[in-house]
């Protein structure tokens, strides 16, 4: 290493100077996220490009039935578009919801305007300033946001127990601080490395549509690859490449199909991955039976809230509601569609 240092140092300086001029690549986290996105796009292009380059019969079929390839390319483009839309969407941050509540409260109560600075480990606090005075909203008890959060918890809950140790903001139920995004996310599900963002309240539906389109695209591509292998004999190296790609495609299909089924179940029961996996570590869910979904409002209402963008904050159910939801299903309940 000591011998190579004189040769590597000029290269490192030139690389750092180049990255400074490109803000999107200067941050290591954003740089790795962009590389993953590029790798995903290249992987999609490889699977479709192999058929165009090596399968003459596939090209003839495309010329004979242009609608077939037109539908496939439409699905291919829609999948990549949905990927970038989901990647660039906001999962629903607590700071943004807090700002909306403060602005709405100031608009209806008095002409004084509130402003919120972004909360992070660097700022160590959320500052809510009120124009026309030296007092701050954070010092008033309770703040509009703090009162809203307290109303979502059972009576007697202390607001100190609800404050995030990193953002120093009051967290509504189903909220978790994401260490990758350095923000608190509403209805936190998980942080997706491939998308480079969290999955939460506002983009869970977009994420479901993406994995649904990805599953359909994988199935269609798998059918075309099997059809390619079933044709006349080809050179061994072409068959070796197609079998390798077919194995990768089959593994990817199993993964995205299981992911689609899992998130469909989460949406129908109004749960998140974090709540399902870390149920015993969430204080307000420890005493709730495993088979009871505390935030479920029925299948129809759950689908409506996710698909139609109903971003209301969920409150913790009362003891009476939990007792009612823990009742075993009877034949009458089935006829009345209690689960819906």
Short description:
By secondary structure, this protein is mostly helical.
Task: Describe the overall structure.
With 340 residues, the protein is mostly helical. Helices cover 55% and strands 5% of the residues. It has helices at 5-20, 23-26, 28-54, 56-64, 66-87, 94-109, 144-151, 204-229, 236-269, 273-277, 299-307, 319-325, 331-335; strands at residues 114-116, 128-130, 176-178, 183-185, 190-192, 197-199. A two-stranded antiparallel sheet has the order 1-2. A hairpin with a 4-residue loop joins strand 3 (176-178) and strand 4 (183-185). Helix 4 (56-64) packs across helix 5, helix 5 packs antiparallel against helix 8 and helix 8 (204-229) packs antiparallel against helix 9. The longest helix is centred in the C-terminal third of the chain and has 34 residues, at 236-269. The radius of gyration is 26 Å and the shape is elongated. The termini are far apart. The relative contact order is 0.09. The model is unreliable at 111-140 (pLDDT under 50).
> Whole-Å distance between the termini?
66 Å
What is the tally of beta strands?
Answer: 6
Average pLDDT level: 80
User: Would you tell me the structural class of the helices and strands?
Assistant: mainly alpha
Described by strand count, sense and barrel closure, the largest sheet is:
2 strands, antiparallel
Determine the fraction of residues in helical runs and give it as a percent range: 55-70%
Strand order of the largest sheet: 1-2
EC number: 2.3.1.225
InterPro entries: Palmitoyltrfase_DHHC, PFA4/ZDH16/20/ERF2-like
Subcellular location: Endomembrane system
Pfam families: DHHC (PF01529)
